[in-house]
Amino acid sequence: MGIATVNQWRAREAYEEVRANYIPQITIGSGLGYSYGFPLTLEGSAPSVVNFNSSQSLFNLSLRQFLKAAKIDWNASSLDVQDKRDSVILDTALTYAQLDQLTGKLKALGEAQSAAENAQFVTEQRLQQGVDSKLDLTKSQLVAARIRLRIAEAQGQADVLREHLSKLLGLPAESIAVEPASMPELPVISQDDDLPARTVENSLAVKQAEQKVAAAQARATGEHKALTMPIIDLASQYAYLAKYNNYDLYYRNYTANNFSGGLNIRFPIFNSVQKAKAEQADASALIAKKQVESTKNQVSEDALKLQRSLRQLAAARDVAKLEWEVAQGDLEAVKARIETGNANTRDQQNARLDAEDKHAAYFDAQLELSRAELQLLRLTGELEKWAIPPR
Predict the structure, then answer these.
(1) Alpha carbons 244 and 23: distance in angstroms, whole number
(2) Which of 18, 140, 194, 202 could form a disulfide with 120 if both were Cys (CB 3.0 to 4.6 A apart)?
(3) Is domain 60-229+268-386 classified as CATH 1.20.1600.10?
């Protein structure tokens, strides 16, 4: 966002640069020099003790079009700022949602770790009593080690996400705590809505591309007007001329103070270089038009793809939730069989591990669904309204 804001400032200054052609450009200087014989010019100016020059554009239709193009670019830069703002909002929301998902996963893994350590302890006791074998103990240790590995992976991801979120928020990482209820509820997106059309209408990418077309067309018009239309500038000059440059010897009516002012009128007759520039500007405008069509098609396809993926991701989320519930049911059944002697702690350990896997899969499926919904909100231009609802 900071870079986009600086680019917006730069675009404004580019507009001011073009507009300044209508404001007098004033310079004060000196052409001090020694003359022998007739006073020749120094780099196109007569030798003078002090000189004053002023110039400004008075009538220039091509410059007017270039000014229009610069203003369009300036206005378009504000769309880029908003686009970067939406990127930051999306990044923050996804980071927070993933951190929430990992928090829940770590909690489930912690419970699984406690169960695995308890099962390992029981297996060690059974090994001492000669009921279980050394291989049974190794399997219990392997299960516990796998859970520790998953905890380490999840904790590492959570630490990275918390650090990233701290940079986004400008807060210390250790002060960030996840509160799932703080996230606004995502709106329900119907498969019957014409989201592609609405996305194209609200897309910042499409609007920026359309602004580029308008700017390119204005520049092309300006290049063509420079090829055919006259240009009128207002200019003035003052110079104080010294006698040691021999002006009094070679000019009959020499005066020290000299001033000139008036209009500088230029009519273009033939300029093959400017003609090539005008044709190049026409090509740039045509390319910009094609890019608008390409951007609209891409945005429409992305919106439709995300809209259709929501149905699949929602179904995957529901399947993952049901599998988790089934795994929980299997775990309760194993507990019941242990009480009757038809199962052992290792069976319970495996059932708990399976329930933990299904629980983690459910978290992942829910995150993927939320990711697609947030991306679709950004495409439709409704992300900020969701993240920062009006008061």
Answers:
(1) 36
(2) 140
(3) yes
